[in-house]
Fold each of these.
Amino acid sequence: MEKKAAIISVGMTKFTSCRRETRSRAELAFAAVKEALTNAGLELKDIDASVYTSVDGFEATVRPARTLEALGQGLNIPLIDVNTGGSAGGSGIKEAVHLIEAGVHDIVLVYGSPTFNSVVDNQQVLNTASPPIFEKPFGIGAVHMGAFYLTRYMRDHDLPEESWADVAAKNHRAAVRNPYAHLRKGPTSAEIMASPMITSPIRLLECCPTSSGAVAMIFASEKRAKELCDTPVWVRAMSSISDTFLSGFKTYRGFDKLKILAQKVYKAAGIKNPRKEIDVAELFNPFAGFELLEYEAVGFCEEGGARRLLEEHVTDVGGDLPVNMSGGVVCTNSGISASVIRHAEVALQLMGKAEGRQVKSPSVGLAHSWGGNLGQFHTLAVLTL
Amino acid sequence: MTRKVGIVSYALEGFYGEAKMSSDELVFTAVSSALRKAGIGRDRIDAVAVSSVDAYDGITISNGLTAPAAGGYEKDATRIQGGGVAAILSAYASIMSGSAELAVVAGGDAVQYDDDAISNASYDVHFNRGSGINNIQSYALVATSLLDQGVATEDDFALLAAKNYRAGTTNRHAHIKSGYSRKDVASSPMVAWPLRSLEIAPVSKGAAALVLASEKAAKELTRNPLWITGIAGGSNTCSGSWRDLLEMKGLRKAIGAAYDMAGVGNPIADIDVFELYTPAAPLELAYYELLGLCEKGKASTLLKNGIKSSGREIEVHPYGIKVHDRGIAINPSGGALCTNPGNCGGIYRAASVLEYLEKHDQARRGVVQDSDINLGFMGETYHVMILEKETR
């Protein structure tokens, strides 16, 4: 690596239901970007380039970045527009990191501001992400994608359905402490088990909502980060991985591609024992149960050991390795913002600025994003003080 | 910077009006060919950057279809929406950062779509979209500005289009090889005044792929890598740029930054070939001045007569391919009027410059100008890249 890149600032709006949202994409973006700039002591003119992340169809438009003029284009700076589905936030952050490490830019803004309120049914849009001839006609939507993985896991590990509710409850409890989260009612495991079945084995309160809101992050080169920030969060290693597009022949036996990615990223970061060396993590869980499969893929436990990790409260508040202290994607799924937020939340934790949800003195964090047809893409980043 | 990035291979599949393969098959064909030419297998590739827009592929998250076809299975893969050179920048940054040694950049166009509707959907929903504006109308507004400000005449537009069509007849990859004359263009139907149908680019199908390499990998794979010595971007506002369409501040910014990075002081003396993204003929006239090829308001003179450069004592002649020994070639591929794929256009233009530099010993340095104005002006982004045969 030629140069180092750091997160120096985060800005976020409160998230709400896409049906209740009254702010436009531009208003949301402006609020988040303004907060991030203010926190960093910067003005818009100080930004060298902006990276916008989106899935166009969810906003019922083509290339929404073209209409967000307040956020960099007004100064004619380079605009990088990244779309890799749900993982676009992670992919956008990777672009910013590479541009800084490459020496192309010193200060890069990454933001997402989806409202989701422009389309009648996002599931119809998502259905078009499935292979058009062989798989789309089955009517596959997001929840079906989740159900394949969880069904297989239950069969392989004789997991009781209550485990999905338990991990969902852990996330919901955490969201109560997060002032930015969308769902903050904190249902119990019993209440979650009593909620309607959506697609077996996933119940309503184990599903993410459709949230609206924005997040912005500012990345800086080593020199500028040290000038501008007392607690820069360094991107020690980051990468992504792609699976195949056709999904009918997959075994759905855990997140095998995430496992490969984690080994690659840990090697680059010099991490040998993630369970011991990582202090805090945000793992992408639009369906609560994903979190358990992800524990295993990122090496927090052996295959089949996720339930024990949960039962021993290792990943809860006060545990050795708190996971999704923001409440996770299952409590706030603002689409592309959700994948940016995984990194923003870890950065805030490391900076000691995660108001209400701060865990004790973490110094190494892990941020994950997931997206595309049946989770075709993952990104993973190791962030450190 | 201690590293540098070269392009070691390229391949094109197409171009035509109707694809006979799906976009993943097209991308696979182009990438396989580029890897074969480089003498490497997919296993050597570290990163893949796909250039596409969902609407042009007819599905959402369409890189799901094309990234594995581009060699991205189990690799670090991404998709950039601002044009082919923006995707090249992504791969360039991957290599310069040390994250990758070899990277593929690819795009493919297969789906038939309603270009007007997709363009209109990219405009602001409250203030612009309802007017029915689309890309062609926005090109017409730029052309009108050129007429209003006395930069060019309608006859110049036809002359320029004919120049590009003539170049297209010698390009085996071109979609349109008909070689339309100035008279053909001037008598073609009026579409959006002052633009006639033959002054507007077609929508082309096909695929393009590049293999980018670190200095070490490039020198291992080829004796003649072409180095990326300048690459930069810029953008315009969706409403602000209405004020003066010829200002193109984002493009000015991209050109200035790319020239600075590559050490280009006098483009007339320093550059041998340009491939410009001009989906309507008049745009090329607007770009001459911005690229430093003529003084303000002198684009028409350049087109008709060429000009003398004190720095190089050569004739700058946009009929480049006929006079390349002594002139600067501008759109020797025939430009977008002859070949205009929405997803892979920027990669195609980069390949065209690479091909020109390969074929012309005396040509040393080329410029690729790219943008997302296939969706129209206002809110557009630009990227400019400089390719060189030798290290400076």
Amino acid sequence: MPINYFLILSAFLFCTGAYGVMARRNSVLVLMSIELMLNAVNLNLVAFSTHLENVSGQVFALFVITIAAAEVGIGLAIVLLIYRNLRSPDLDQVEQLKG
Amino acid sequence: MLDSAWLFPVIPAVSFLVILFFGKKLPFKGAEVGIASVGAMFLLACVVAAQWIDKVESAGHGSEKGLAALGHSVVAAAEGAKGGGEVEPIVHGFTWWQNGAAKFVVGTRVDGLVVMMLLVVTTISLLVHIYSTAYMHDDRRYTYYYAALSLFTASMLLLVVSANLLQLLVGWELVGLCSFMLIGHWWEEKENSNAALKAFLTTRTGDVGLMIGIIVCFFAANSFDIAKVNAYALSPGADHGLLLVAAVALMFGIMGKSGQFFLHTWLPDAMAGPTPVSALIHAATMVVAGVYLGARVYPVFFNGFSIGTSTFNMMAIVGAVTILIGAALAFVQHDIKKVLAYSTISQLGYMVMALGVGAWSAALFHLFTHAFFKACLFLGAGSISHSATHHSFDMREMGGLRKKMPVTFWTFMIATLALAGIFPFAGFWSKDEILATAGQGRYDVFVVVGLVGAVMTAAYMTRCVYLTFFGKYRGHHHPHESSPAITVPLVVLAVLSLLAGLLQAAPINVTKFEHWLEPVGGLPELVHPKFDYALATISVALASLAVGAAFFFLFKREESGAFKGLTQRSKVAHAGYTFLEKKYYLDDLYEGVIVAGIKGPIARASYWMNQNVIDGVVNAVGRGTTRAGRFTYGVLDQELVDGAVNDLGRETGSAGGGMTKLQSGQLQRYALLLLASVGLIGLAVYLVNVV
Amino acid sequence: MDWFKDWALTLAVFTPLVGMALVMLIPRANEVAIKTVALLTSLVTLAVGIGILADFDYDHTAKMQFQVDKSWIDVINARYHVGIDGISLPLVILTMVIVPLCIIYSWDHFPDPHNPKAFLALILLLEVGMIGTFVALDLVLFFIFFEIVLLPMFFMIGVWGGPNREYASIKFFLFTLFGSALMLVAFLGLFFLSKQQTFDITTLSALGGSGIARSTQILLFAGLFLGFAIKVPMFPFHTWLPDAHTEAPTVGSVLLAAILLKLGTYGFIRIALPILPQGAEVWAPWIGLLAVIGIIYGALCCLAQTDMKRLIAFSSVAHMGFVMLGIATLTDFGINAAVFGMVAHGLITGMLFFIAGSMQHRYETREMSRLGGLLISAPKMGWILGFCAMASLGLPGLAGFWGEFPAVLSSFEPSKLANGLIGGTDGTLWTFRTFMVIAAIGTVLAAGYLLWMYQRVAMGTPKPEFEDAHIHDVHTSEWISWTPLLLGIVVFGLFPNLIFSLTNDAASHITRAFSG
């Protein structure tokens, strides 16, 4: 199988994720979109690993999955705190980074 | 005494200081100090003269007597040359200043020429000192006058005994200063101070030449020493061009000091000073300093102008022109002192011409005799103004004084006859010697000039004597004879005018003057002429004729009253008269054109240039810098640089305002920006790589 | 006396500084104490000077004596090196004599706005700078002293000056500072180009420009020339002088004329000529040209003046022309004449400014058309003025002659190495001979303007407006301050060897580079 298929798929997934991160208001959805982007990356890593017959790509993918799990943990905690503070999961209201 | 010649300038200088600082407290207000010092100088001069004569006689003893018996003219030449070799001048000196390895000495030199000058200066000075006690008796600055006389005597004696040219220059300028002080003695009046300034500046113009001449001599002979300069000029290897330059330059000095044409104009004006001063400074001593200089470094002129071999030269021509122009001007003067002043100019012309034609001893002999009879004439004129005309010298206010002032008249007559060159008075011998020497060489033209001058002298002096002593008294005062302080010097001078010529009376084999004078060391081969009876007869005859004609003309005019002068009848003659009356327009040229030009337009133009061009540049630089500063501050700094800074701030502010919109604080915006940027960068990288 | 040998010059330079500090400490109201301290300080300085005179080795005038050579600023190799030889000795003594005389002169009449404390402090500071410049043997030290002089003079003119004082003082300051800047550049050039990287004047003189290319020497000399020529001042850099003199208080004018101008000519003799001989050879005819232009030009400007003090100021331009002509010949004759001329000009023109100041004090005008009959109103002062005018016009027997005549004499035969204006040795020879004639004519003009001034100011009768005015004759303080100067004029005129014997060997030492 040509590697391009995997790459197109992964690009599609990444774009979907990126769109979700930028466009969605709901923080949970943004979190899920991030997961999507991460998995797009994973897909790439595994695809290249197979293609180049080098196992390190898959090792990296495993790492990414692990980190993604942790990230989701922290992310959900943040979302929970946002919700608790703002009584809304809407990210437009989170402007504290503005100087 | 020959070794102590330094006393001559020093004692009168001390006397000057004493009179200056203590004069007013002394019983005779300083006059006694002056008279005592100059009297002592006179005695010293006599002693020096006696010792010098003794020295000369003993040196030339063996040969002289035998030779004197032979014919005279040839022998005298031999004697002169020999005497010069045998009788060494007495020279002393100590270091005055130094440069490099060269040391410049200040020193004294005594030889025949110096001894003669010492006698003349001290004699006339002593008589003038005595005369002045009466003449200046009520003067407002009597003490100061005596101080100046003392200073003058000191300076003149310094000039005379100088062993080198530099020291001579010092004396030369100092006598000029004294002349300035004494001409301007009554400085309250503008004319007097003008005359003083004119005298000083004119002679100083000549001194430019003197200075340069001395410098050229110095570099030629590598010394200021008169003996060395003369030795160089006589040496066969001497650079003739250099000597010519030196001679021409020195000639300017002589022209300035000795009133030679064309720098003579100050001398008549100098008559603004007191009359005794005119007699001492402007007739007998200071004005002959130029002649003295000419005689002192005669070899420079002799070789520079090729006097022995040429038919004419600058020196003789200047002298000849001066004889004629001076004598001509003497005719048109109404002021008796001015007549005498122009006569002095004319007689100085004789001396310079004599030097120019090679008649060295004759020139000095004329200097010697002229000092006595001209001083006598001046003092006589002073006596008249003192006792007859109440300080006026206008001959139109005199007349008929013959009976009223017999002593003055007779002394004046003797001096006049001496001046006119009538046998056997002093002037005859000296003038004749000049003419005879000139006739001996290739200078026949100058003999004619000399004869014409003699005729003119006789005529104008007759006019002067006639207007003063004959006819009717035209003044408004009560003429009487002057006091002894005035008449005694007159008598002494008259006797000298009568007898001085006999020192050098060739026909009776007396040549003492020449014999004693010539051993000066370093003289060119001099010509000693035979006594020319024909020439002497002609000159005396012509002079007598002139006296007679002038007397007749004046007498006739006075008697008939109708006798009209030539100037009233002929236009040409009248124009000539005006020309003379305006003094050849030389004064107008000097004062109106040169001095006024320098003082007026040229000085003003220089100052204008200073203020507007040079200072203008400075000010313009200053103003320009200020303006540049203002521009720098106003435009560059305040507007451009500071403006840029301010603008930057302002723009930054507004730019920041715009930028705040970017910083929304919303993470999603940030992410969008991040991605967009990555995209743009990627695009850029792609484009760069592709292109 | 070894102690004295080591400390004499340092004492001479810094005693006035100590005096100045003392003057500053005394309360302003206590004027007598201020004046006394200032006078005593200057007299002590003079006493040191007399000690130097007594201890000076007159057999070796070309050698630097009383030398002190201590390290000072090691980074740039600048040293505290002072010494004195036959050329600087007369100038140092002149300074030491003039300053107390100035203090005595101003004892009773300080110019407005009075304030003797500041005035005397400035005079003492000025003395530090002047003596320091004459004894400094290190370029940096020289430069510092040279510049120190500017400051007090600037304030003297600017505070105690006449109506146009601000313009004059600023012009004076900026003009001279401009020259100094170029001079400093030239000093730095000398430092970097000399083999040993030193500022030491004796070392540099001994090197005599070896190792510096001829073209570089010419450029460096130009820098030095501008610095010194402005100070002299030479035509056409002289225009600050008349203004400064006209506006300065009397004492300021005296110090300016008597000593400050000599810093420039001294710089030529001490620094420019020996250190850059090849540069000097090229520039010499040009300096000579500017000098004779200055002589004639200064004289002509004098003739156009109506203000007595301004006339005397312009006469300085003419007189310094003679000094510079002597220097330009690059001969020992010329240098001797120049140093003599400097001393003589200091005495004579100093005196003339004193008299002009005293007359202004009495008549309250310097317009010559309003003055007249000084000989009647104040006869003694009139005679002194006449005496000084005669000395100034170079009458033989007085000091002025010995500056003028040898300078003219020396230009008959300049150094054979000088070249530049008209090519070749012969060209230079005849150029200088032309200068000689022009300079000699300048003496006539000098006589003209001085006597003309004398005639208008002193002769005749007083003008109606001053007929009844009480014009006091010479005061005691004036007598005290003038007598030494008048005596100096006579003594040096009669015995010129007093100075020539000092300068002669030193001058030959300097010109040995040009005698080839």
Amino acid sequence: MMHVGMPGLRSTIQDRGRTGHVRDGIPPAGPADPIAFAAALELAGCDPDDAAIEIAGLPFAFTCDDRRIVAATGREVRIRTRGHVPGWTSVLARAGQEVTVEGTAVTRFAYLAVSGGFDLPRVLGSRATYLAAALGPLPRPLVAGDTLPLGASTAGVESAGHRIVPPAYGRVVRAVLGPHDLRFPEETVRTFFRGTFAVHADSDRMGVRLTGATLVPPDEELLTCGIVAGAVQVPRGGAPIVLLADHQTTGGYPILATVVQADLGIVAQASPGEYLRFQRVTPEEAGRLD
Amino acid sequence: MTVRPFGDRAFLIELEQRIDPAIVDHGRAIADAWEGRGLGDAIPAYASVVVSFDPARTPWREAAAVARSVAASSWGATMEGGGRTIEIPTVYDGPDLLDTAARSGMPVDELIALHCGQTYRAFFLGFMPGLAYCGMLDARIHAPRLDAPRPRVGAGSVGIANGQTLVYPVDSPGGWRLIGRTDLRMFDPRRDPPALVRAGDRVRFVAR
């Protein structure tokens, strides 16, 4: 069992996302920063299908009943047991030992994985939490006193101390043009890839709002179409929104470009007021650069 | 018909830019064909389909070729005549019922009779879990969305807007004109499938 001491501001159980139900209007959910999530699982010796805790608003403190390998990832995170250990490193947590995941002012989403994984049932094929529809095996933010069942773990001392190099979380985000680019004025396409955008405070797991360079949306109304994470919607006002894990499955705003999967974490982890720029890539280049 | 890249792991297949049940059926046939290939999820909408794949399993070029082939070969493979008929018992007492009837220049009873009086097609699901866009309404009761969406609409609320009708599956913000409500659970994650109405189904509202 894991016992939650300090739950963070909004911490949820996430696995890599709920597939197979988008046609029924069910968003994929899953981690806002897929790379950090996958690294946490790998470091803790978990399966890629296992669940981890996505923490928004550190610190997060917990104990486990037995010895576990734990790992925390994200932007500027570290683990405190008796001393401090950097994030992106596997750590041995002894039975009953308090472990705290800490961040800095720029940390938005941290991922905490525990060896053995969380022994929670799948709902519609996934353990991911989608709070807007109370979907998932634990469809609410974690609270102090929560007790989470863990799977069997064989991880020993030798599994501690492994490290994955964290991504740079730079300011440049790669994006593929379109799919609605042909409907925008050419000047707006140029502006998007040359301009600088600031992250708005009103950003969450559904999407990151940007302000800055002025984009001109098409005059014509578009019919609602399906959406994927990374879509850069340009609503009437011209301030773009980059959609993330909790995005609605369909939408009616034109989509100028789409952030590649590998760079979703850069967008998700950008703090309000920080700047982002977009670099145009082809979808094939994106696949090779992963 | 066009096939455009949608990021590095999806394509948008656009058929037309209008709402027509035959085009909706065509899109659903493309979505079925894509999912039948086992490459990933597909999201059909009014006149388009988004098809997703995992580049770690399927190279982009191969996925692009399959997307073009599926889009081209699913012509005419419509599901006209398929789908179930779902009856939705409805109490017509929504907060926008009087206004909407007045806007259409008719008594409330007539608006109710027109809303119940035909069988709709569920075009596609989107916006939130289990929300089915159904149409088309009788032209006499077409009305735009509300100028200001409500911050909260209760699950089971029956709304109309833009010539279409829907039932809100979960509590959420919403801008459709609320004319009634149903006790049916439109979305239940413990059910399989979780959505009561699925794309292609026929939907009838029954006044209670």
Amino acid sequence: MSHSNSLSRGMRRIGAGTIRAISRTGFMFRFFLAVLLKTPSALHRLQLTAREIYFAGVLSLVVIMVSGLFVGMVLGLQGYDSLNKYGAGDSLGIFVGLSLVRELGPVVAGLLFASRAGSAVTAEIGLMKTTEQLSAMEMMAVDPLARIVAPRFWGGVISMPLLAALFSVMGVFGAYLVGVRLIGVDNGTFWGNMQAGIDFWPDITNGIIKSVVFGIAVSLIAVFEGYDADPTAEGVSAATTRTVVGGSLAILALDFVLTVFMFRGLGNV
Amino acid sequence: MAIPRGKVVAIMGGSGSGKTTILRLIGGQLRARDGKVLVQGQSVRDLSREELFAMRRRIGMLFQFGALFTDMTVFENVAFPIREHTDLDEALIRDLVLMKLHAVGLRGAAQFHPAELSGGMARRVALARAIALDPMLVMYDEPFAGLDPISLGIVGQLIRRLNDALGITSVVVTHDVYESLKIVDYLYFVSEGRIISQGTPQEVRQSTDPFVRQFVDGQPDGPVPFHYPAKPYAEELAARVA
């Protein structure tokens, strides 16, 4: 009796969890549409979006560039070590460039972006809700979706590809420092191979597409979690965590899906 | 419940009695499931979103802890509704904001950030913001909560003076009997979503209604019981031993 009870309770919990997850996803997409609808009125006030680009993008520059430099330097060391075993040490440039432009740039920059900028946006909107600032705005006949949410969303979407590009640039520079300056790969070979082996289409465009998609995903999750947060201290804290965890998982999952499609497009799979 | 034009009306009741809900119904943040809320003869429930926003432009609201925008200065907070809803040039906006801040005595604090203000000052800035667009109706949600006696007196006087000087109508939701008896024209007592009693301050002071007496005299037990509903005490204690 008690066994079947606990079994049915477990089933019920799974069912309730599934329903909650589905309804939240549906709510999030309706929210996404609402934000898109409010975008024209948000664009009237471009300085608001510019401000968010500053907060999400400019203030993330240091962490993104330093991380890019270190990732590039490690790639230089590890890459040269592996390639040199097969006598392909000269291919370091193309190896590093492709890894960064196709994968590491968008993905690592996206993960950093989710934890640096996404969490800040969630916490800010969540606290605005907790302190009734969003209600106050509504009562002043100003739509918070247009005034608060849409500028933060677009600020993130615009910043993300730029940050990913800078991450790749710094990574290539880091690999150059280690590979050419430290290990002694020939300077001309390093850059020449890179130039010959990386095409603007599809390598770089695919990287840009990825970073735009990650920017949309992380920004949407960040503004949604903030807007949907329980208006308490625990609620905002939980929402911030959900942004970082959900944003990171979304990036990794989307990266796989996008990569599959991109390689199929190339006819390599 | 009627709120006549030009008067200061208090809605009183214990915590959780539905006071704030009334304000949210008037402002259209909640829609009435039963019954009707009429603002200037228009049913709030039946307004479209545009009509609702048009109505809200003529309503000011003071939130419990001010709800100032923390990323803006005091000046920008008061300027916010003016900038959002009018095309006035900056010089005129500056004059308007300084006038509103002067009315609440905080012209000197214009460049402060909300974090630098005391609770009472924040409440006054929020009041200046609520009257920025010269509304017909100002709603106050617990304007006295958590204030020291001086700030409390200032806010109380401001509510009365602004109401009379600007010809607005004020609705004050509060549980502060003493302060509201001094400034309002009419009081409603609500409990569990119903109007229990009403009257002018004079009538309330002389009322013999047990609920009003409990509220005005601050007695812990009465029509509103001290104990949350529970099992009989002896039964519960005995059950624990068994």
